[in-house]
Amino acid sequence: MSSIKQKFRLGALVVAMCVPGLALSQSISVIVNGEPVTFEGVGPQQVNGRVLVPLRGVMEKLGAYVTFDGPTKTVSATKAGTDLTLHLGDRHAVVNGHDVTLDVPPQEFRGSTMVPLRFVGEALGAEVRWNAATYTVDITTADAGTTVKTDPNQYLPIRNNPPVGAASITSFDVDHAGTFRGGEELKLTLVGTPGGTATFSIPGVIQDIPMTETQPGVYVGSFRVPANSPINITKANAIARLRVNGAEKMIQAGSSLGFDTQPPLITAVTPDPNSRVGRDRPNISATFDDGSGSGVDPATVVVRLDNRRVTADAQITSTFVSYRPDTALSSGMHEVTITASDRAGNPVTKTWTFRVIGNTDVIRSSTTTARVNLLLRERKWCSRLSVNPVVRPPTPWVIAWSTGG
Q1: pLDDT tier at 316 (50, 70, 90 boundaries)?
Q2: Does 151 map to a domain?
Q3: Same domain, 130 and 230
Q4: For residue 375, what is the enclosing H or E element?
């Protein structure tokens, strides 16, 4: 019998090692509204510092209607006011139509579907506390004592009805998604328990900005991105906190934000500025450099040659632009202007000139050189004869001599 137990323990260890991040630790207890939760088979597990629990058991005690679709490996939980969808192995969840990033994805362990307890509990409106000393998760719902299941076919999201009682949050939204540039303003709205104190933060950008309760249970905050501050963050999430009578609730906005306050650079242009070019169809090019910003939007790039728009004939990417004239350019000065914007809308413009040297310029240059050489030879001959050469411009040059006296 002891041999069988050893084999079983070894098998359990091997299975645990096959689940990335799973740590075998002391038993974890879960209490919902004061009642311990009994798990059949696999119990709660810690993965990368997060507690995962079997799909069944806790969710029902939270008053949620729970389903699992095997073919698509999709977990769905529904409770009055909230729709929640997760996929095994995917760190992205959907709460009331908003995308949310998870620290640890749902996963399968020993044949059981495991979901992150804190995220699911708070998404369904419960308060989740972790006692590290006793390895206990204590969950309290706003409707403690009821476990009414909701038919998902009859479910209608409740978005604007603020909850009453302990600190609770119904929704937290940002009025604008995507990337912000300097000078732009974002507004955030939180719907939750009235009479509280709400703040919002954007890690790496701002911290604990107060929100104003504009009407009972509706808190509004705003933030204007500094125009001259070098903020370049490609992905950030706004986080709100609501405090009511000493209780606190926290929520993360579903949509990610980006910040790019610096315009891109246009570098490595050809032909070189103020250069002389022997070809009448030179290659005109430039490189875009946006550092850690949002990157140049190719759709915003405009190329002009001698104030004539030639964008349609240019090759354009987010990092490079190249154009070669279809016909020969005339001799003389030519001007190139390239404009572009990054994906946040920061504009940049670069203008430079170059000169095309034609055959006539080459002949004129050679003729002038020959005449200068002739003049030098004449000066040398005159010095030997002790005469003074007199140069009378313009070209053709005439050389006269004076014997002096």
Answers
A1: very high
A2: no
A3: no
A4: helix 359-384
Residues 247, 310, single domain; the answer is no
Last residue of a domain, one of 239, 260, 281: 260
Which helix (H) or strand (E) segment is 84 a member of?
strand 82-87
Closest to 179 (Cα-Cα) out of 260, 255, 293, 292: 260
By DSSP bridging, strand 275-277 and strand 347-356 are parallel
Average pLDDT estimate for 51-75: 79
What would the two tokens of residue 274 be? 């103020």
State the residue for tokens 């609730």: 249
Residue 184 shares a structural domain with residue 242: yes
Whether 345 is covered by a domain: the verdict is yes
Residues 46 and 124 in one domain: yes
Token code pair at residue 156: 């209608």
Strand pairing category for 398-402 and 388-392? antiparallel
Calpha distance 338→279 (Å, rounded): 21
Partnered with residue 45 across adjacent β-strands are 52
Q: How far is CA 23 from the centre of its chain?
A: 32
Task: Indicate whether 187 and 255 sit together in one domain.
Answer: yes
pLDDT attached to residue 330: 94
Domain assignment of residue 158, yes or no: no
Convert the pLDDT of each residue in 381-401 to its tens digit: 555 555 555 544 444 444 444
CA dist., res. 10 & res. 32, Å (int): 33
- Tell me what the mean pLDDT of segment 56-77 comes to: 79
Instruction: Average the pLDDT over 66-92 and give the result.
Output: 82
Q: Which of the listed ranges 83-87, 229-233, 264-268, 397-401 does the model predict with the highest average pLDDT?
A: 264-268
Cis before residue 394, ω within 30 degrees of 0?
yes
φ, ψ for residue 246, nearest 5 deg? 85, -15
pLDDT-derived band of residue 34, with 50, 70 and 90 as boundaries?
Answer: confident
Is the entire prediction scored with pTM above 0.85?
Answer: no
The answer on 331 and 286 residing in a single domain is: yes
Domain that holds residue 105: 18-80+100-143
| Same domain for 375 and 281 | no
Q: Give the domain-ending residue among 201, 225, 260.
A: 260
Distance CA 306, CA 324 (A): 13
Q: 73 and 174 share a domain? A: no
The total number of structural domains in the chain stands at 4
Which amino acid is residue 27, in one-letter code? S
Residue 123, pLDDT > 60, answer yes
